[in-house]
């Protein structure tokens, strides 16, 4: 049987043809396709301004600037995320303040956020891990009461919703990623949903050297900008993907439901929250019963690979990385994030999977895990 990776993008022939058209057009950097993608994304999030860039990391970093986060400010986030979430806080000279994950949702524990707020706190970066949205009502209630900006790291939750409202269609600044593994891709890329045209103008400057061009052909630079503009090649991929996004997510939800049907509950794995309304099922991640196993997680992953099935790890708790330990973070600081980070495995889930693939994965998990239970 073919190797089943934990994820794989679905790129259709129309998208491949659209990329060919861009390459033949004579204009391959930022141009009409990027503007078309911005308009389509804006329509997707109910008309709010959207600007595209080369990565969600760039979008998050520029969002911190737009939110006025300065060196010395504190920004609250969760250590159970891709390390980009906290790296951008360091990049702008601010201090990451971690709050542990909730063991059920695996997202930031909103019960613990207020205790982490100090006079220096400027913003919160919530992360919708695996596409399961953080409770937006409680989040914005806390942010509002403490006058904090919110920069939603919605890298994984494109197409998810909170109580029926699309993520990105409300709230403060919202960042999505179009990395190859996300629910829609542009190869690499990302975007930021902004509150108004002034913020969008500032974002345009930040993403391209701070430049403003005037109608008379002159230009000026009044802020320090970087270089993060998207190519039309990437935008053409993004446009093809956005058309398919809702269909992809319907299929992901179906596959996630199948996992819950076929996964052997007696193995003692902890399954993710069974949300088939709001989550976009970016990933399906059981937690291994490590204390009850004779295999390590690495050995489990190797055994699954030997069975033809790719398994990922998203993510180890980031405060235990050397960079963050050097800032004083240590084992025991965030026990839920650490526990989840040690036990989590990402099983295959992507739109092109067949129903039978889910059964095949569940059978392999049983075959590997059953004899390894103490
Ligand atoms: C993928 C991801 C990012 C970064 O996105 P890039 O486009 O790769 O920069 C940030 N945060 C989370 C939670 C992600 O999953």
Automatic annotation (TrEMBL):
Signal peptide from the UniProt entry: none
**Gene3D superfamilies, per this entry?**
Aspartate Aminotransferase, domain 1, Type I PLP-dependent aspartate aminotransferase-like (Major domain)
A Pfam match is DegT_DnrJ_EryC1
Which molecular function terms from Gene Ontology are attached? transaminase activity
> Which superkingdom heads the taxonomic lineage of this protein's source?
Bacteria
| CDD domains named in the record | AHBA_syn
InterPro entries the UniProt entry points to: DegT/StrS_aminotransferase, PyrdxlP-dep_Trfase, PyrdxlP-dep_Trfase_major, PyrdxlP-dep_Trfase_small
Q: Which UniProt keywords apply?
A: Aminotransferase, Pyridoxal phosphate, Transferase
The UniProt similarity line reads: Belongs to the DegT/DnrJ/EryC1 family.
Designated name of the protein: DegT/DnrJ/EryC1/StrS aminotransferase family protein
Q: What is the lineage of its organism?
A: Bacteria, Pseudomonadati, Pseudomonadota, Betaproteobacteria, Neisseriales
